[in-house]
Design goal:
This protein is mainly β. The protein is built from 2 helices and 9 strands; from the N terminus they run H-E-E-E-E-E-E-E-E-H-E. The chain has a single domain, classed as Calycin beta-barrel core domain (Lipocalin, Beta Barrel). An 8-stranded antiparallel beta barrel has the order 1-2-3-4-5-6-7-8. The longest helix is centred in the C-terminal third of the chain and has 6 residues.
């Protein structure tokens, strides 16, 4: 689900990258410290808001497991399966090797903030489709498809200049 996710993960895919592109933000000091991965990577997450939505009408559900496996339907409706691991190149980042019937790709993500039970703000970056330029996005996930932007995120969103730029997606 993470980025990991839907638009988040582009429907068109390219050969997998193994190291995080240098153009991706480092987010030093903005990544959630002490992330409890086994609490975060479990259950269903809905991608409800994005800074740069590719398919704003889409509502994507990500199924996560504690062994860092993700499953969701991509922009084209086809199932995408990803296997994640902590990224050794950047503190706080995870890399996800993803495959779909159209090929494979690697997506990198970091959890900026989460309360584990209701919401999660993520940063996702990678090279998708035919592009050779990395694309990044900030994504808000909720445990409920009807989730909104939680007031607990106001300070963090303001600091990242995202308070007015997160757009609601097709989840209801």
């Amino acid at each position: 689900f993470l980025g990991l996710l839907g638009q988040t993960f582009a429907a068109a895919v390219t050969s997998a990258t193994t190291s995080i592109p240098k153009e991706c933000l480092e987010l030093k000091g903005d990544i959630k410290s002490g992330l409890e991965a086994n609490k975060f990577f479990t259950g269903d997450w809905y991608l409800t808001h994005a800074r740069d939505p590719k398919n704003p009408e889409l509502c994507q559900k990500y199924q996560a497991t504690s062994d860092l496996q993700l499953k969701f339907n991509g922009n084209d409706g086809k199932e995408v399966k990803c296997q994640g691991a902590k990224d050794s190149g950047r503190e706080g980042f995870y890399s996800f090797q993803c495959s779909t019937s159209g090929g494979s790709f690697t997506s990198f993500m970091a959890v900026v903030e989460t309360d584990y039970n209701n919401y999660a703000l993520l940063y996702r970056c990678g090279i998708y489709g035919q592009s050779s330029t990395p694309q990044d996005n900030f994504l808000l996930f909720n445990r409920q498809s009807s989730g909104e932007i939680p007031k607990e995120l106001t300070t963090k969103l303001t600091a990242l200049d995202l308070m007015t730029s997160l757009k609601k997606l097709g989840c209801t």
